[in-house]
Amino acid sequence: MPWQYFTAAEGKKNIAKEVITMFKHIMLPTDGSELSNAAVQEGIRFAKSIGARVTGICVMPNQHPFFYEGMSAEVYLELQAEKRKKLRKVAEAFLSVVEKGAREAGVPCNAVVETSDHPYEAIVQVAERAGCDLIMMASHGRRGVKAVLLGSETQKVLTHSKIPVLVYR
Q1: How, if at all, do strands 134-138 and 25-29 pair?
Q2: Long-range contacts of 138-147 (CB under 8 A, 24+ apart)
Q3: How many domains does the chain have?
Q4: In this structure, are residues 165 and 43 in contact, taking their beta carbons and an 8 Å threshold?
Q5: What is the C-alpha separation between 128 and 134, in angstroms, rounded?
Q6: How confident is the model over 51-104, as pLDDT tens digits?
Q7: 6 in a structural domain
Q8: What residues contact 41, with CB distance under 8 A and at least 6 apart?
Q9: Which of 10, 119, 129, 134 has the smallest number of Cβ neighbours within 10 A?
Q10: pLDDT per residue over 132-153, tens digit each?
Q11: Distances, alpha carbon 143 to alpha carbons 3, 47, 50, 146, in Å
C-alpha cells in the first residue's frame, strides 16, 4: 500500500497491524492550466486512495489599475470592483475542476479563492491555516532564463513551506 506505513503490537504471537495514514488533508493549488488540472486529478485520486480530504486553492493577482486624470473616484472604484468580480469568476471556474473531481471521487473538498501578488505566500499561508499536511502541485518545468524571468511558484512553495510538498510533472 503506497503512502501508508504499519505498526505492530509488540509481545503478541499474532501481530496485529494497524494502518496509519500519513496525510489526511491535501492542498491542491490550481492555475487552470492543463498541467495543473492533471495534478489536481492525480491529487484527488491519491486522496481517495488514502482517505484524505482536499482543499483546492486558486490565487489571483491583486489588481493595480491606473487612475487617469479626470477620472472620478466613483468610476475608479467601480472599475476595481468589476475587475475583482471577473477574476473571482475565473478562479471559481478553475476551482470547479477540483470540486467536480472530488465530488465524483467521493473525496471531501473545500475550495478557496485568494488574492495576492505572491501566490506562493498565499498557498503556504492557507495550507497552514487550513491544517493541510501535504501540498501537491504541478511544476511547469521551466529552466534557465525562462525560470529566472517567469519564476516558479512551485519552487517558491518548496522553499518557504514547512508542510511537505509533492510536485507533479
Answers
A1: parallel
A2: 138/33, 138/35, 138/36, 138/38, 138/39, 138/167, 138/168, 138/169, 139/167, 139/168, 139/169, 140/33, 140/35, 141/169
A3: 1
A4: no
A5: 10
A6: 999 999 999 988 776 667 777 888 888 888 898 999 999 999 999 999 999 999
A7: no
A8: 101
A9: 10
A10: 999 999 997 666 555 554 458 9
A11: 30, 30, 33, 6
For the record, the C-alpha cell of 12 comes out as: 503478541
- Residues 140, 46 contacting (CB under 8 angstroms): no
Does residue 157 fall inside a structural domain? yes
* Of 146, 149, 168, residue with least CA distance to 157: 168
Q: Is residue 4 part of a domain?
A: no
- The Cα 83–Cα 35 span in angstroms is 26
Instruction: Give the whole-angstrom CA distance, residue 49 versus residue 2.
Output: 9
CA distance 34 to 43: 14
Cell of 166: 509533492
CATH number for the domain that contains residue 132: 3.40.50.620
**Alpha carbon 102 to its chain's center:** 13
Query: Mean pLDDT over residues 4-10, rounded?
Result: 48
**Predicted model pTM:** 0.82
Give residues with Cβ within 8 angstroms of 83, minimum separation 6: 63, 65
Q: Is residue 38 one of the residues assigned to a domain?
A: yes
